[in-house]
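Q: Structure tokens for this one, please.
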Amino acid sequence: MPYLGQTTDLTSQYLSIRRVSDSFRAVAGQVFAPGSAVQIAPLDKQVYGDFATVELTTVALTSSPQNSIGLVSDAWPGFNGSIGTASYTSPSTAQAVRGTSGVDIVEAGFHPAALIDQSGTGAVSITNGSPLVASDATAGYMQGAAAGAGSGYGIIANALLPSTGIGATLAAGALAQAAQTDTLTGTPAVGDTLSITVQAPYNTSSPGVVQKVTYTTPPLTSAQAASVTTAAAALVAYLNGQPGFSQYFTATNSSGVVTVTVNAAAAPFLVTFGPGIDGQGVASSFYISISGAVGNSLTFAVSSTGGTTSTAGGAAFTGGTGYKGTAPVMVV
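A: Here is the predicted structure, written as tokens:
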């Protein structure tokens, strides 16, 4: 006989996300982007006596303890609702705030894209389950904290990350973007082609399998083949003109050395795991930013044809430090 106390069919892979959310009133003149950490505003900023007015969490944690309430919902469409381009900036005065749409806040449970900035003072590396507190660098962001953090370090959420692989660790420290080089030598000739292969987001058709994309220039013209510098310039122009490349990376050229750098505001990078228990579909997935040290996980390779020789600086991106982007969390 089945256990009658169970109210959810846990055998289904299409379950609703478990979380608690509610709407709150915004203070004036702040940007409440989805994923932002918010707190109950001080008494002198409360519009009404219901204590439902919120503001972004502040910085300088040791001198500004937080009254955190949760994170702006990823499903919130902004102050203008679903009409036109979303606007997340609250009205400029408290009087204008009255009558505007509330801000939907996830107070407990899953949030897929919390804003994280690991450059603040006191930040520690984030792994699965790490406690997250208000960022000491950017209002509305969070950073990793040591377990049992003391006064002024109210825990807002815990990180929900993979145990291994890309995104398993979000390093603390000053933000620097990962990069890698392709050095061109030899004697370029008309008709040569130049290629760079970079890691691409995972997909749902082959869950858990690393994806790579190769970008190859059209055959070099006589002007492009004049030197390694002009050949490199042709490669850079081609790469930066490809939407699949430019939403994640930017290429530059210096005397025949092409440097590919992760964009500071790269598009969200899909990571999938799987397949599911029935051998079909995706077991789970999440989006991560490839900002900072996460970019060091990405593979890199180069090749060329004809008289041009391409030499990669390494088989993966390198030099990325810190982290600023989004990550899945459980709001507590």
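A few notes: The first strand starts at residue 19 and ends at 26. The chain has two domains: 19-171+327-331, 179-316.
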